[in-house]
């Protein structure tokens, strides 16, 4: 839109559009022309660390090397065709191969194959572009080789979209912060805290007629200060009263031994002495029973979905999110089965729970159950590396784990989903433990239920246990309990996270390359003090 012909039509020149004051009304046409002259000098493409290419629109059939972009002569208006036009106007389209005419009447649309071929030829990893409204503020394309970012929530006051910002760290790890639309992820009752409050306020700055570029710099610096979100480290709490001395349990030794393989080749086993594992289970069980079946938590914290014995990926999650106690964590269940290192996974998680009982939280998943682990791998792993008796002791701990969590009274978390039996959270608090997972009822649903966008209300689940539920169930539940978001796991989703019911429910899955058969990413959701949600995505490791 930074172009004279476009701004002349769409409001920057003279319209009072969406209550935004424009050049002609607030200043004069001469100033508009001066802005347009600046637009004609702006960059059209960027490359980050030779691996990520960024533009507003999309790729171009005319581009063969980035030298072509470097040779663009400026100032220049946007031509009707050609390289500049495509970089500013082109769009991806998942339903085509190659190139096709664009319904916008300018430039092209291009398919996933174009993205793959371009990145392979240029030895790059990602195309990052904007130009299109996307519901969640960001949307992946071409197996996560292209991302569309849109940062204007409630666009034009007509769309219910969120806006997003992508952060790239020095390792080129991408994470996302979503600024929700009016009914989105950010908790409205807490929106006056931190950066969210600064951004949410409706204010107009009256600029003086002689506003210089120095003035602009001062203004931008001021805005940046208003939008700073201060990082806050987790305060380490005292160890739990029911815990024996750490020297007796050798918790530090267990954690240290578990982390010895950090940074090494995936698959290396960690063999903890059986006596230490038994003591760990005994103490973890006491801590779970001492805490409520319903965890009542406060942000900030990070939330992870299914891990399923993928120990190397669990360590990656901690590397990206911060090893405890640097960050608070809530895991949503399914720590064992299917993966090759369930013992390392559950041992490290239990050890962190024992060491940081008020900062590190584990919900029960449907796989934390004797009947399921008997079939899907954990039983066999325990039998092979230790004995059946130790497996039984783990199952006894599973029977004592919490099944639901509530964050700041606004976000409800569980492994599976909602239940038609739940009318209030006191029902969860009254659950008597230890307990196995029943075939029906509240506990069963919290661990097994799934959302389904194709239905309304409740229906039978193809899993043969519990239910599926529609978007209307989510909306009704949240409205009744004055909450904003349901956060659950339990299903593989391609990008590691997936929204449902107009961003009122999110599914998190944290095991990339699940079972070595899926090309899915894994994700971790961070919730800050304002209840703003952002995401870190663990790409699947490329097979050699």
From TrEMBL:
Segments passing through the bilayer: none
SMART domains from the UniProt entry: PP2Ac
Molecular function as annotated in GO: metal ion binding; protein serine/threonine phosphatase activity
One Pfam family in the UniProt entry: STPPase_N
Catalytic activity: O-phospho-L-seryl-[protein] + H2O = L-seryl-[protein] + phosphate; O-phospho-L-threonyl-[protein] + H2O = L-threonyl-[protein] + phosphate
Cofactor: Mn(2+)
InterPro entries reported for this sequence: Calcineurin-like_PHP, Metallo-depent_PP-like, PP1_catalytic_subunit, Ser/Thr-sp_prot-phosphatase, STPPase_N
A GO CC annotation given for this chain: nucleus
SUPFAM superfamilies, per database record: Metallo-dependent phosphatases
Entry annotated with the keyword Signal: no
Enzyme Commission number(s): 3.1.3.16
Domain Serine/threonine specific protein phosphatases positions: 363-368
Keyword vocabulary terms for this entry: Hydrolase, Manganese, Metal-binding, Protein phosphatase
UniProt key word Transmembrane: no
Protein family: Belongs to the PPP phosphatase family. PP-1 subfamily.
PANTHER family: SERINE/THREONINE PROTEIN PHOSPHATASE, SERINE_THREONINE-PROTEIN PHOSPHATASE
Protein name: Serine/threonine-protein phosphatase
Organism name: Effrenium voratum
């Amino acid at each position: 839109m930074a172009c004279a012909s476009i701004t002349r039509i769409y409001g920057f020149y003279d319209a009072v559009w969406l209550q935004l004051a424009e050049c002609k009304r607030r200043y004069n046409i001469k100033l508009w022309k001066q802005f347009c002259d600046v637009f004609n000098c702006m960059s059209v493409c960027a490359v980050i660390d030779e691996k990520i290419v960024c533009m507003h629109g999309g790729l171009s059939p005319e581009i063969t090397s980035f030298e072509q972009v470097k040779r663009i002569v400026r100032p220049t208006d946007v031509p009707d065709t050609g390289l500049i036009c495509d970089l500013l106007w082109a769009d991806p389209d998942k339903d085509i191969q190659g190139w096709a005419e664009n319904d916008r009447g300018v430039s092209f649309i291009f398919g996933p194959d174009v993205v793959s071929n371009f990145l392979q030829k240029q030895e790059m990893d990602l195309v990052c572009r904007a130009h299109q409204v996307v519901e969640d503020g960001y949307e992946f394309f071409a197996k996560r080789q292209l991302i569309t970012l849109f940062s204007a929530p409630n666009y034009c006051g007509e769309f219910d979209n969120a806006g997003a910002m992508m952060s790239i760290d020095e390792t080129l790890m991408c994470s996302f912060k979503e600024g929700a639309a009016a009914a989105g992820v950010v908790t409205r009752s807490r929106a006056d805290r931190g950066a969210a409050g600064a951004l949410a306020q409706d204010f107009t700055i009256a600029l003086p007629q002689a506003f210089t570029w120095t003035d602009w710099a001062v203004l931008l610096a001021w805005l940046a200060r208003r939008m700073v979100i201060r990082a806050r480290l987790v305060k380490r709490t005292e160890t739990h009263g029911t815990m024996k001395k750490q020297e007796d349990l050798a918790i530090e030794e267990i954690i240290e031994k578990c982390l010895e393989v950090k940074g090494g080749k995936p698959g290396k086993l960690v063999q903890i002495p059986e006596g230490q594992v038994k003591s760990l289970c005994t103490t973890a069980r006491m801590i779970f029973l001492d805490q409520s079946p319903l965890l009542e938590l406060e942000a900030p914290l990070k939330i992870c979905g299914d891990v399923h014995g993928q120990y190397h990926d669990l360590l990656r999650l901690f590397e990206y999110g911060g090893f405890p106690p640097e960050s608070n964590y809530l895991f949503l269940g399914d720590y064992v089965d299917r993966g090759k290192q369930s013992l390392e996974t559950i041992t490290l998680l239990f050890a962190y729970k024992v060491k940081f009982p008020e900062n590190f939280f584990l919900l029960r998943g449907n796989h934390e159950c004797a009947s399921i682990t008997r079939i899907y791998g954990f039983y066999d792993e325990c039998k092979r590396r230790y004995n059946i008796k130790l497996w039984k002791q783990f199952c006894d701990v599973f029977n004592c784990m919490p099944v639901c969590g509530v964050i700041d009274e606004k976000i409800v978390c569980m492994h599976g989903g909602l239940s038609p039996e739940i009318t209030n959270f006191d029902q969860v608090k009254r659950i008597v433990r230890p307990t196995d997972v029943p075939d029906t009822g509240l506990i069963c649903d919290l661990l097994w239920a799934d959302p389904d966008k194709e239905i309304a209300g409740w229906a039978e689940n193809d899993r043969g246990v519990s239910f599926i539920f529609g978007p209307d169930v989510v909306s009704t539940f949240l409205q009744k309990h004055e909450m904003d978001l349901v956060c659950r796991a339990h299903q593989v989703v391609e990008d590691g996270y997936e929204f449902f019911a107009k961003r009122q429910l999110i599914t998190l899955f944290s095991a990339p390359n699940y079972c070595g058969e899926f090309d899915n990413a894994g994700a971790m959701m961070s919730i800050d003090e304002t209840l703003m949600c952002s995401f870190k995505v663990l790409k699947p490791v490329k097979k050699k």
